[in-house]
Design the sequence.
């Protein structure tokens, strides 16, 4: 009987099923220090044709319109004593270059304007629509420089800091931007 | 015998030739012939609709991934009839499960900071900072992935599920005290800036 005890224990051990499901915690905090000074609301048409595959019969095309919010500003934490020169009521500040802070395409701002699917084809699924919109998202991100978002962010940052310093009692304020480029949003 | 040898040589030479073409990518792979081509979007312009001036100090961002789902009675007639025939007590249901990966930004909206909130007394400054708030919940199309989708789901119905994901994300961040952390950091950043701007004492009220 004693010989069977280890085997029985093994059987019991391996027959136990863990019913408790572990929910992984992926919530993570990151400290930021960005002063967002401009928001661009942009629109884009996302159109795609799925007729490049020779063995798929019939047309399948979609046309979506989306609105995105692009925020840009400066990193507030990198302004330190070395970037500020005070001489009585005069102050000179060197601000970091503007950078892209966020790009946000809200689901409610996406509309399917037109969709055409042939008899032998399936309609676009949610996953397919999201994949197409993700391509659009990339194109919007790549156009930030040409839209002048960063330039506008620097102008607004300069204006805000000037007004703020004026309230603090400075009468002559000189603001310029550092030459070092800031890392961009990936 | 010589004819057979000749044919075998031609076949081997042909096979080697095809193999060589495939290796040098001059001949497409047979597998590629039956592979679907990726659907690419056209390069359309990005148009500016509006430009807004902001003064938001973003001090904490939480990154999160949530799973949301939704179930509704099936609108697919064939599915409904089939399920009804199998089990009339359990009618067919459409289901969608979406995984959303995004971020919640919190901080202080300095737009509400007015001249009346700042009092300067020589090298001391007293400032009344606006309360920290959730500034934005971001889940872009690249952050959504559909785990399962059965039945017919209109884009509007899917958007409701996605909106639910954003609400869950915001709720989780607030539960983990994102606002308290954001407020603390906003004060720290402001204090550092004011000290660098020549003030010796900074007080928040």
Sequence:
């Amino acid at each position: 009987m004693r010989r069977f005890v280890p085997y029985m224990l093994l059987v019991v051990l391996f027959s136990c099923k863990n019913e408790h499901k572990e929910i992984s915690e992926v919530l993570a905090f990151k400290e930021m220090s960005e002063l967002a000074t401009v928001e661009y609301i942009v629109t884009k048409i996302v159109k795609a044709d799925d007729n490049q595959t020779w063995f798929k019969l019939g047309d399948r095309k979609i046309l979506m319109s989306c609105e995105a919010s692009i925020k840009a500003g400066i990193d507030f934490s990198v302004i330190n004593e070395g970037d500020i020169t005070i001489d009585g009521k005069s102050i000179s500040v060197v601000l970091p270059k503007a950078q892209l802070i966020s790009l946000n395409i809200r689901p409610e701002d996406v509309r399917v304007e037109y969709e055409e699917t042939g008899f032998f084809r399936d309609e676009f699924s949610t996953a397919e629509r999201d994949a197409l919109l993700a391509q659009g998202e990339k194109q919007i991100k790549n156009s930030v420089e040409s839209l002048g978002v960063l330039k506008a962010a620097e102008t607004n940052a300069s204006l805000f800091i000037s007004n703020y310093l004026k309230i603090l009692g400075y009468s002559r304020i000189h603001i310029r931007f550092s030459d070092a480029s800031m890392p961009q949003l990936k | 015998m010589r004819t057979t040898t000749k044919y075998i040589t031609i076949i081997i030479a042909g096979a080697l030739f095809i193999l060589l073409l495939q290796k040098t990518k001059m001949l497409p792979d047979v597998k590629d012939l039956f592979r679907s081509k990726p659907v690419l979007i056209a390069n359309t312009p990005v148009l500016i609709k509006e430009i807004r001036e902001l003064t938001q100090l973003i001090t904490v961002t939480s990154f999160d991934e949530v799973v949301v789902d939704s179930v509704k009675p099936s609108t697919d007639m064939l599915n409904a009839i089939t399920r009804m025939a199998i089990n009339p007590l359990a009618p067919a249901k459409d289901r969608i499960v979406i995984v959303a990966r995004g971020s919640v930004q919190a901080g202080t909206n300095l737009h509400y900071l007015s001249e009346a909130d700042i009092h300067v007394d020589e090298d001391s400054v007293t400032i009344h900072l606006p309360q920290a708030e959730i500034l934005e919940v971001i889940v872009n199309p690249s952050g959504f992935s559909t785990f399962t989708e059965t039945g017919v789901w209109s884009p509007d119905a899917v958007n409701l599920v996605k909106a639910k994901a954003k609400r869950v994300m915001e709720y989780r961040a607030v539960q983990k005290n994102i606002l308290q952390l954001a407020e603390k950091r906003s004060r720290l950043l402001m204090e550092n800036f004011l000290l660098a701007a020549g003030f010796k004492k900074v007080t928040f009220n």
Remarks:
- Chain B touches chain A through 72 residues (CB under 8 Å).
